[in-house]
Write the C-alpha cells for this entry.
Amino acid sequence: MVSDLWGAMMAQIQHFPRMQPDCESYEQELAVQTQAFSQVGADLGTLEAQRLANNLQRTGSLTDDEACWTTRTLYTQGIALRDRHKNALALTAG
C-alpha cells in the first residue's frame, strides 16, 4: 500500500518544473520533495495512504468529496512537516 502511495507521489514530483537550470540544485530540491512525500505517507495509516495515492493518480476525475478529502489531507499533513519539507510539498502540489 505504501509503495502505491510512493508511486503516486513520485508521479506528482516528476511534474514539478525545474526551479533553476542547475542540475545539482534541481536534484537537491527533488530529494527534499521526495522526503516530504515520504513523511506524509509514513504519517498516514495504510488505508488513508492508499486512498491518497489513488486520488493523486486521478486528480482530474475525483468527485467533489474525494477532491476535498485529498486537499484537506495534504494540507493537514503538510502543516505538520518541517519548514523545508512543507515548502517543497506546497510547491509540488501548487
